[in-house]
Amino acid sequence: MKKAKKHSVKGIAEKLNISPTTVSFVLNGKAKEKKISDEMIEKVLAYVKEINYKPNQLAQSLRTGKSKIIVFMVEDISNHFFASIARKIEDLAYEQDYKVLFCSNENKDKKSRDLIQLFKDRQVDGYIINPSPGIRNDVEALIQDDIPVILFDRYFPGLKTHYVGIDNEEASYKATLHLIENGFKKIGFITLATTQTQMANRKKGYLKATKEHALASKVLEIEFDSGNPKIKKELIKEFIFKEDLDAIYFSTNYLTQSGLEVFKENSPELIDKFGILTFDDHEFFKIHTPTISAIAQPKDEMASELMKLMLVLLNKSSKDLSPKEIILKTTLFPRNSTLVKNH
Amino acid sequence: MKKAKKHSVKGIAEKLNISPTTVSFVLNGKAKEKKISDEMIEKVLAYVKEINYKPNQLAQSLRTGKSKIIVFMVEDISNHFFASIARKIEDLAYEQDYKVLFCSNENKDKKSRDLIQLFKDRQVDGYIINPSPGIRNDVEALIQDDIPVILFDRYFPGLKTHYVGIDNEEASYKATLHLIENGFKKIGFITLATTQTQMANRKKGYLKATKEHALASKVLEIEFDSGNPKIKKELIKEFIFKEDLDAIYFSTNYLTQSGLEVFKENSPELIDKFGILTFDDHEFFKIHTPTISAIAQPKDEMASELMKLMLVLLNKSSKDLSPKEIILKTTLFPRNSTLVKNH
DNA sequence: TTTTTAAACTAAAACGATTTAGTATATTAG
DNA sequence: CTAATATACTAAATCGTTTTAGTTTAAAAA
């Protein structure tokens, strides 16, 4: 197999004895507008097809300032929730000839900032960001620079940005009601120690429901990176077994997993005495014993709303589009862990 | 906030009253070699630092032909196994100033080919590929073009390429022995209907072990995309309950999940009568009832070996490096599903 | 017939870097 | 004292596009 020599606009022009300008116009569909004759268009198109010419994206990007690349930055791309959305985003983007750079900020500001800086130098066209708590200014700076940014899952109160997410408070409120309706009276809430909106609102929902029903509210807040995972489990263990509870509600599947491990490792039989509910669904909750009730976020829909909005932003040169908030519906899947109880 | 004007080599040169060449030499560490004086170096570096200049990667890429982007193509990026490796690859790549384009080929040849074509136009520097069955020629073409390619998880027999993976036959053989040693005599093997190496070798290992111990071998092969998931589960259900078996060994966690669902949905209590073993570990296997024995692939190590090798390839202009095969060790985690049985 | 306007194309600059092939001055060798 | 060599820099080409500002010829208007 011989090394195919690179084709170029210039080469094509020479071969056809015309100017690169003409070739470029035809290639970019500006032929009509630029009064190129039909025969000429035909000729160029035919040759381009014959040699299967594909423009050099780098050169194109350099000239136009558009890289046709978008960034999808999340807390952890290996997390099932984010990975599923990423998978969908990928498809939608490639369909439109965009590439996606996926990256994980570990919910750390330094990492977020480093990544954003990195991408700025690469003139990425747009950002979909699941922001770490302290990057409000950086997000603002991007917006000031007129670069399309969409936040998702969490946002910065008061900062007007495009946003795709769910109504965490409402979802959490309803989920807590579900527990209450099923007879649970001493509901513990295990969440992350953070002021970020998604978690804060889930807590609000929980507190609202318990308060309304005059139930005690017991909350355990765990540091995100509480060093070693042992500590996390120790905290959960203590909370579950020392507090006087009849149900546990986890604010995110990251914690649920640890919680279920705690049961498994300590007293597997005891899990049936508790109501268990979790934010974020996972296939495995359907095969766990007992099956675990969960609040599912509409991952596919989130992905498509994100990309739909992003494409609009990418094609607007004028940034006249006022910040758009897209709030999607969650679904509560009641399963055995909160239904058929023997309490 | 005012829009920061773009800096450039040319701009810097003008400001300092020197030539762009000099600036470039200094920036690329060629100052000494090009006999630039120490004061000059100092001056340039100081100014560059002052204005926090960052070179335009696109321009750089166009000129040098290196995009500093690598592709990580897998079957499905939302799959836990691949997502975990991706997460690690990401870190290692960014450390070296490389970006990574993640993408999923769904194990389909057309998608694989489309993606490769897409990236060629973007002059990606290197490819890490989990190949679909029919893209041998495309991979060969990339290698002919002298572009770094590493296959992983599966390979093309006879085609010499760089490769990172495990010894699937050996791992599968040992896993089957584990079942046999724990008293199981009628072991069913559920796998995908594919001739791809990773699956073929897992089957080989299973067959070898059962044959050696004069046990019957019963294999169920399922089409990857057998239309609707119902059909897949129907097949599994029939296999599990109609064949006379005392253990089930799944060749990949994609099938294990369905298998466990089958048990859950039909007769949850029956799972304790079977030995259950799966290829590929998952956190949830530790909290399933019973806990599920699994063969774990060294995901982190795979990722680091992949990137280590990739970086070597990227820095070799000469392609003198003969194809390197890196075979890593798996770990068998025996858990309750194969240990404490009442059969 | 002369002037305008339209049609069909093109030359050359620009995007922002890297690199080859110099030039001018200073130093050393012969 | 001249020639050779080293030092310290630079002009201009190049990567492969896009786009602005033309030019030339033909047709329409005056």
TrEMBL record, chains A, B:
Q: Which SUPFAM superfamilies match?
A: lambda repressor-like DNA-binding domains, Periplasmic binding protein-like I
Q: What PANTHER family does the database record attribute to this sequence? A: HTH-TYPE TRANSCRIPTIONAL REGULATOR GALS (PTHR30146:SF109), LACI-RELATED TRANSCRIPTIONAL REPRESSOR (PTHR30146)
The Gene Ontology terms for molecular function here are: DNA-binding transcription factor activity; transcription cis-regulatory region binding
Q: Cross-referenced CDD domains, in alphabetical order?
A: HTH_LacI
Instruction: Provide the alphabetized UniProt keywords.
Output: DNA-binding, Transcription, Transcription regulation
* All copies of domain HTH lacI-type, residue ranges: 12-64
Domain of life, per the record?
A: Bacteria
Q: Which PROSITE patterns match?
A: HTH_LACI_2
Q: What protein is this chain from?
A: LacI family transcriptional regulator
Lineage summary: Bacteria, Pseudomonadati, Bacteroidota, Flavobacteriia, Flavobacteriales
Give the Pfam families listed for this entry: LacI (PF00356), Peripla_BP_3 (PF13377)
